[in-house]
């Protein structure tokens, strides 16, 4: 299923897929960043 999915990225779907990837990456980004601040604050 991943085979054809990645190939589809080249099509217009790339825009939609890119947004999903960026959101997924941005979500975990702030999560670990806050943990680092909580660690020293603790």
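-> sequence recovered:
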């Amino acid at each position: 299923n991943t085979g054809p999915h990645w190939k589809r990225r080249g099509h217009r779907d790339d825009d939609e897929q890119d947004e999903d990837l960026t959101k997924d990456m941005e979500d975990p980004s702030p999560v670990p960043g806050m943990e680092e601040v909580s660690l020293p604050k603790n």
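The longest helix spans residues 13-26.
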